[in-house]
Design goal:
It is built from eleven helices and 15 strands. The relative contact order is 0.14. Strands 7-8-9-4-10-11 form a six-stranded mixed β-sheet, with helices on both faces. Strands 1, 2, 3, 5 and 6 form a five-stranded antiparallel β-sheet that branches. 35% of the residues lie in helices and 26% in strands. By secondary structure, the chain is of the alpha/beta class. A hairpin with a 2-residue loop joins strand 13 and strand 14. Bound molecules: adenosine-5'-triphosphate and magnesium ion. The site of adenosine-5'-triphosphate has 11 residues, from helix 1.
């Protein structure tokens, strides 16, 4: 599969502080790439480097198979639409007027901006001033402005930020529809739940370093699931689990949850509990959430 974005050791330093370090992105063409990381982890900086809005300190960027250098930059970025931080529209103009500005600026024809407005389902709201739009409508207008040029790649920095659940779902549906149309979408978020099911490839950045890249399934296999032990004596079971196996064990109802146990560890724990006279009547593997995996990947103590 060809890659629409590839970076090699992409890095950015501000003074002596590294905010993005040795990031090797591999974004396959046609996917929705979810770029996840906590606040301040370097998502926006990385995306701005991809768009030539921030100059990398070192490293290389290849878009659509061609290195981004001064001679190719303009031509390559003509195929890229983006929405970085706040929606770029003029508030005192209507949605339609904003789109016409983009149309003139980029020399597009009318049908292109109309199609973009339909894609984000704003075609009936174009006579309204943007100041009277909801946040979700503003985000959708921003995406329409990015889409008008019919990009091969769309780079969206936290498009669901501040939206209510219905607004988030609308953006999700829109991203899926775009991917079905063959547009590659790179979308960032600091909330796993917002894009995990929309994205088919995930990149996770923490402290400027890419700590995971791959499919959702690959991510889930990277860690061992938690085990729930159902017992007649949860207090003793918890105390024993903590001393023998894991000090992060916790009580869940009448069960004890032991984080990150592989099959051998599970067998050992059950043996020890039964050996100590604690009745065990069930052992279950807990379904792992991406949040759990993230906490494992970052060594615990951090949440996304
Ligand atoms: N122009 C700048 N000068 C100095 N430091 C900067 C600059 N831009 C960003 N940083 C720092 O780089 C780090 C990464 O910032 P960045 O905006 O890329 O993170 P982010 O992952 O997008 O965070 P958020 O989820 O809050 O949007 C932060 O600590 C930020 O303070
Ligand atoms: Mg950001």
């Amino acid at each position: 599969m060809s890659e629409i974005i590839t970076t090699y050791a992409l890095s950015k330093r501000y003074g002596d502080r590294a905010v993005v370090e040795d990031v090797d992105l591999h974004v396959p063409e046609g996917c929705v790439y979810g770029f996840l990381g906590p606040n301040g982890s370097g998502k926006s900086t990385t995306m701005k480097m991809l768009l030539s809005l921030v100059r990398p300190t070192s490293g290389e960027i290849t878009l659509m198979g061609r290195p981004v250098v001064p001679q190719t930059r303009h031509e390559l970025l003509a195929h890229v639409g983006s929405l970085i931080e706040a929606p770029p529209a003029y508030l005192h103009l209507t949605g339609g007027e904003n789109l016409r500005l983009v149309q003139r600026l980029l020399g597009l024809d009318e049908t292109q901006v109309q199609a973009a407005a339909r894609t984000v389902r704003l075609q009936d709201q174009l006579d309204k001033k943007v100041r009277d739009y909801s946040l979700g409508m503003k985000q959708r207008l921003g995406i329409a402005m990015a889409l008008a040029r019919r990009p091969r790649l769309l780079v969206l920095d936290e498009p669901t930020n501040g939206l209510d659940p219905a607004g988030i779902e609308e953006i999700r549906e829109l991203l899926r529809a775009l991917a079905d149309d063959g547009v590659t979408v790179m979308v960032s978020s600091h909330l796993l739940g917002e894009i995990d099911r929309t994205a088919n490839v995930l990149g996770i950045i923490d402290g400027g370093r890419l700590i995971f890249q791959g499919t959702r399934e690959e991510l889930l296999t990277r860690t061992t699931p938690d085990v729930l032990v159902d017992t007649f004596d949860p207090d003793r079971a918890l105390a024993l689990s903590r001393t023998r196996q894991a000090n992060r064990a916790s009580r869940v109802g009448d069960s004890v949850r032991v984080p990150g146990l592989d099959p051998d560890g599970t067998a050992r724990l059950v043996r020890e509990l039964v050996g100590a006279g604690v009745g065990v009547h069930g052992v279950r593997r807990r379904e792992q959430s991406l949040e759990d995996v993230f906490i494992d990947l970052t060594g615990g103590g951090r949440t996304l």
